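## retry 2 of 3
previous attempt timed out at serialization; input unchanged, resubmitting
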Amino acid sequence: MTRAQVETPNIQAMHVTQTSLNSFNAKQTLQVGDKTYTYYSLIEAEKNGLEGISRLPHSLKVVLENLLRFEDGRTVTKADIEACAAWLKDKSSSHEISYRPARVLMQDFTGVPAVVDLAAMRDATANLGADPQKINPQVPVDLVIDHSVMVDFFGTGTAFTQNVAREYERNGERYEFLRWGQEAFDNFRVVPPGTGICHQVNLEYLAQTVWTKEENGETVAYPDTLVGTDSHTTMVNGLAVLGWGVGGIEAEAAMLGQPISMLLPEVIGFKLEGEMQDGITATDLVLRVVEMLRERGVVGKFVEFFGPGLDNLTLEDQATIANMAPEYGATCGFFPVDNETLAYLRTTGREDDRVALVEEYSKAQGMFRTTDSADPEFTDVLYLDLNDVDPAISGPKRPQDRVVLAEAKEKFAKALAGEFAKTDQPAAKVEGTDYSITHGDVVIAAITSCTNTSNPAVLVAAGLVARKALELGLEVQPWVKTSLAPGSQVVTDYLTASGLQDDLDKLGFNLVGYGCTTCIGNSGPLPEPISAAVQAEDLVACSVLSGNRNFEGRVNPDVKANYLASPPLVVAYALAGKMTTDITTEPLGTGKDGQPVYLKDVWPSAQEIADIVRETVTPEMFKGRYSDVFKGDAGWQNIKVEGGETYAWNSSSTYVQNPPYFEGLSKDIKPIEDVHGARILSLFGDSITTDHISPAGSFKADTPAGQYLKDRQVAPKDFNSYGSRRGNHEIMMRGTFANIRIKNQMVPGVEGGFTKGPNGEVAAMYDAAMDYAEQGKPLVVFGGKEYGTGSSRDWAAKGTRLLGVRAVIVESFERIHRSNLVGMGVLPLQFKDGASWKSLNLEGDEEITIEGLDKITPRCDVTVKVKSPNGTDKEFVALCRIDTEDEMEYYRNGGILHYVLRNLVA
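## retry succeeded, writing output
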């Protein structure tokens, strides 16, 4: 496939056209070498009425260019464009705009249900008497299969081959479906299994920083923008590509040509100064940034990094910081184009013409940062001197809970006695071995995740720690499950070229797969003797991973305390084997000379790391690995593709089923029904994550999902994970609110997905919801602050809807999940004036009524009535968190897909 095809696949099939009215005479031409490009000039627009826009943050300049290019007088008006300039007055706005990203990125966990929905929409279109071919992505879509590989095999040279083979065994039905989608839909490409993580593939190959397409005989140049069905889509912000995670539902609408409705955001500037000390990693830096921005509060806001400190960060360092925007809660974490951007594009094998275009376009638009550039104007500014960053990890349950490395031992002891309520120190004998394990022992050490495996510096550092440890005679503790899962095959190339892969292999950090693995809960089972020992004494076992997520119940069912760390610290903790060791002052182990070996003895210098990176990371590696990236291995090529323009659903499949969203769909909108006599499904506390609502990991035979599969003769060893079965709504409904660590206050003292059913008895969430459905009773969910944090998991909203939940009432929402609820026709309501379900003394046996839903407007007040069993009534006022008129239309239609489908059919 040629580079031109990669950038603009099937562009002739696109129906989204640039129909600019050009109110500000922005349409101009740009000469780069011997090529002429059409572009929409911010400089000219400023001269022609948009005064001051050169002072806008770079991220908002990208948004403004988008509005200029798509001005049509209907979805984008002159007033929308003027609102961008007016933003400078208050550095915020309540103005709603329609934004059109250039492309969509998916991973397979969220991508499979998106393609399932497209297939279901084709069926529904046919049922309504229209042409199924109307349902096609209208913008380029790339799906990267990276979420399905599990660490079943580890610590051997054959682990990668064995894990990939197992992946194909488990996911054959899903992969057959995706191969059909690749053939059936225009503008849709699939990066096959065993290639890399979507965000790293995006950073290293798919992203172009400045995008181009042929239109009406012109080559139009414009900023590369995207939305993705994974929250860490923001990683590419490090390459000056504006993008963020959305729910699969919202991404599907974008694929189908619908603009994304959004309010002009506040933009928080984050000024970086100085330079990091020797030995400090990008991981240490990003954990500090996460802590600071979480404390500031940036949910729903853009964050943009600026200042002289950027001159001392590599592009990969910037991508590491941008990656964790979901962890600090922002919509994005943007870095402007600068010389480092150009250097990275060259290093990763982008063509010279592309690099030249990026430079000239960015400079022509006032989007190119230099050391002496004037600072943009921001809503607020935070400051960090890079010299003040200390070595750190984060945990044991949240990415924002940063722990200075020197305090890690002490902080774990406090957590053990506090939140884990453990005061003893049992010794659990591991059967068949000569050792025991106890609280705080590290049973998983995983180099994993797009956050860090995209950064050669920290991976080379991990390899050097391994090399030095081996030279001194150290070994990984025998109870530690070790793994290395890079985000692209290029990582293997430079680790092999440097000889560091051999060192990592000797410590047990063998290649296990190219995918997210441990970071998303695909850590695979612990060895049975270890698992049995953990369970026998209810140990607080630990994992250390170079990931971005450490929510409880996510990494492994046997592991309660999870810590995020840089790759070299992952190796160090594997050597120590315990969180109860202060690795800054106590030995990692005893060397072959009988002397203690300390962290400082194995820690590489910045110069050592830089030398190896410079010698071994080459453009030829990237060009070679990405030259035929969509071809796949023999396993992918041998998958048989069946079906035509509509999918031949297999009723016996336990992976892919036709979802019920469009059953009984009519061409006309039905009036919204009020909620009368709803029962409460759950009363949740703060920080309920999308992992809590819709877990991605494994599940057991005694769960509703496990029972469903057993009834269909699927053995527990073949259950796979919730994430891999997202194409089957029957599994995902049963998995909704089924996280093993979720706590529903209606059943105090009980962990897991349980509630009280109609008869007052404790029951699984799914079972209770189905019992209420039989009685014709709608449901309501109550929660606390930060409801829906974490991954942009569309099934957290889909499952909520399919269980019969009509409204979710909480103290505050995270951005993506609130949007997803609206997209599924679920009403998000927010308590006002400090109220909560606790202040109302709700117990869960009340009935809830919400009236007047046919008259609600964005962000209006809604009265909620509460009727208690003892006959007392109360009511409270909640804020309707349908935020925009476009969202209001989605809600009236019963969801965003219904809205799109009706429009296409009409």
